[in-house]
């Protein structure tokens, strides 16, 4: 249940902060990707470098930092809030607990809480008398009414030297609660119990064993769509060419090479409730191929080509009742006009159009600008591919399903 999930780990300034490093590793061993945000006081117990080294990501601490590396570092709480599947604060001190209950956001951790679109799990950790105080009790009740998950602390020996309720729960208990929350969230997923096929990356049409026709597709957008469908509870099958991005853990995948290979695999899985054709499929393939490398001095200077199968048209002609077909269109000019014609011609439900004329959109970039078009609807999405993939699927299967 944690495999492939994206988790923000918040660390506030309590003695149990050192245990958060072990919690981070436990999430990673379960297959999750983890990013860490700390309160400034948490650095008194564990250095940010420890979490940066373990997570392979920079640690978010200050909203406005003197060491900002990019102009938009101060908006990291917004980006992370959209990125995460779950936000866990362990340990969560009485101070941080009170700030969250009161809606305060004076550091990057509390600001990210305010911006988060995912479930929030708090692990209150403090001295027993503090935990029993009227103020903490009021704050806990407020947080529970707000729908925030609370994992109560355990009894035991505390940093004060006293015995009481206030210890950080065992790591396995935090993981179990995290799995429970994610499972509950998936039950409400827009694609729960639906089979979703996503194609990604380029195809390669070989001329001989060492030469081929292809395109610059990295597979980033297709993999982002697969991850977004997985996050919405779909049973996702990824069919991909030679991509340049890792396949999300827990995702079923099949690797193909040519347009013909892709067509054969799509036909096998054409009964899926949702098919997203994000692959950059070659329109042409060599009419004649050689089993041996063609020598330069023996080669013809012209290459005879033939059209590949139009997979999207085949899907449109063989569309099943209730099936949703989503295609992509890449153009250098007249983007919307060409995309509308393509959607109608292919007989599919949605076309996602993006221009390859900009350096910030299209092949091999981390960002994209996509115009989603149906017969009656049009909306533009811009930003990181992973984020807009989620926004697009939420739009298609939510308000506009």
TrEMBL record:
**All residue ranges annotated as the DNA/pantothenate metabolism flavoprotein C-terminal domain in the record:** 191-396
Alphabetized UniProt keyword annotations: Decarboxylase, Flavoprotein, FMN, Ligase, Lyase, Magnesium, Metal-binding, Multifunctional enzyme
Q: Which parts of this chain are annotated as the region Phosphopantothenate--cysteine ligase?
A: 196-401
Q: Which Gene3D superfamilies match?
A: CoaB-like, Flavin prenyltransferase-like
**Where does the Flavoprotein domain start and stop, copy by copy?**
5-179
- Tell me how the cofactor is bound: Binds 1 FMN per subunit.
EC number(s) recorded for this UniProt protein: 4.1.1.36, 6.3.2.5
Task: Give the metabolic or biological pathway.
Answer: Cofactor biosynthesis; coenzyme A biosynthesis; CoA from (R)-pantothenate: step 2/5; Cofactor biosynthesis; coenzyme A biosynthesis; CoA from (R)-pantothenate: step 3/5
- Reaction catalyzed: N-[(R)-4-phosphopantothenoyl]-L-cysteine + H(+) = (R)-4'-phosphopantetheine + CO2; (R)-4'-phosphopantothenate + L-cysteine + CTP = N-[(R)-4-phosphopantothenoyl]-L-cysteine + CMP + diphosphate + H(+)
- Per its UniProt record, what Pfam families does this chain match? DFP, Flavoprotein
Is Flavoprotein among this UniProt entry's keywords?
Answer: yes
SUPFAM superfamilies named among the record's database cross-references: CoaB-like, Homo-oligomeric flavin-containing Cys decarboxylases, HFCD
Q: Does the keyword Phosphoprotein apply?
A: no
Q: Where, in this chain's numbering, is CTP bound? A: 283, 293, 328, 342, 346
MF terms (GO), sorted A to Z: phosphopantothenate--cysteine ligase activity; phosphopantothenoylcysteine decarboxylase activity
Name any cofactors this protein relies on: FMN; Mg(2+)
Q: Which portions of the sequence form the region Phosphopantothenoylcysteine decarboxylase? A: 1-195
Family listed? In the C-terminal section; belongs to the PPC synthetase family.
What task does this protein carry out? Catalyzes two sequential steps in the biosynthesis of coenzyme A. In the first step cysteine is conjugated to 4'-phosphopantothenate to form 4-phosphopantothenoylcysteine. In the second step the latter compound is decarboxylated to form 4'-phosphopantotheine.
Q: What is the protein's name according to its record? A: Coenzyme A biosynthesis bifunctional protein CoaBC
Q: State the organism of origin.
A: Fodinibius salicampi
């Amino acid at each position: 249940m944690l495999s492939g999930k994206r988790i923000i780990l918040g660390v506030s300034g309590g003695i149990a902060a050192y245990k958060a490093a072990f919690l981070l590793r436990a999430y990673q061993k379960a297959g999750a990707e983890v990013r860490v945000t700390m309160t400034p006081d948490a650095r008194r117990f564990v250095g940010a470098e420890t979490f940066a080294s373990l997570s392979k990501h920079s640690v978010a601490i200050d909203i406005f930092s003197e060491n900002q590396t990019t102009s938009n570092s101060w908006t990291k709480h917004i980006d992370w809030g959209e990125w995460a599947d779950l936000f866990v604060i362990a340990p969560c001190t009485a101070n941080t607990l009170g700030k969250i209950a009161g809606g305060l956001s004076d550091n990057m951790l509390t600001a990210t809480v305010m911006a988060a679109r995912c479930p929030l799990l708090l692990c209150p950790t403090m001295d027993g008398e503090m935990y029993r105080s009227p103020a903490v009790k009021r704050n806990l009740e407020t947080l529970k009414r707000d729908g925030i998950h609370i994992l109560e602390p355990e009894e035991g020996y505390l940093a004060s030297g006293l015995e009481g309720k206030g210890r950080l729960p065992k790591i396995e208990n935090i993981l179990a609660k995290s799995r429970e929350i994610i499972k509950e969230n998936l039950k409400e997923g827009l694609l729960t119990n639906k089979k979703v096929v996503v194609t990604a990356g380029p195809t390669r049409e070989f001329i001989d064993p060492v030469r081929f026709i292809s395109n610059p597709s990295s597979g980033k957008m297709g993999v982002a769509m697969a991850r977004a469908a997985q996050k919405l509870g779909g049973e996702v099958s990824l069919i991909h060419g030679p991509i340049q991005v890792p396949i999300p853990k827990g995702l079923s995948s099949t690797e193909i090479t040519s347009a013909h290979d892709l067509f054969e695999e799509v036909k096998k899985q054409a009964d899926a409730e949702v098919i997203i054709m994000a692959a950059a499929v070659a329109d042409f393939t060599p009419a004649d191929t050689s089993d041996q490398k063609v020598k330069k001095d023996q080669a013809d200077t012209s290459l005879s080509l033939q059209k590949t199968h139009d997979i999207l048209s085949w899907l449109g002609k063989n569309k099943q009742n209730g099936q949703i077909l989503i295609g992509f269109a890449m153009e250098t000019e007249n983007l919307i006009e060409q995309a509308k014609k393509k959607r109608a011609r292919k007989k599919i439900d949605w076309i996602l159009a993006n221009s390859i004329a900009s350096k910030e959109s299209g092949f091999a970039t981390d960002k994209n600008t996509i115009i989603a078009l149906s017969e009656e609807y049009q909306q533009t999405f811009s930003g990181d591919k992973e984020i807009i993939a989620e926004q697009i699927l939420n739009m298609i299967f939510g308000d506009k399903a």
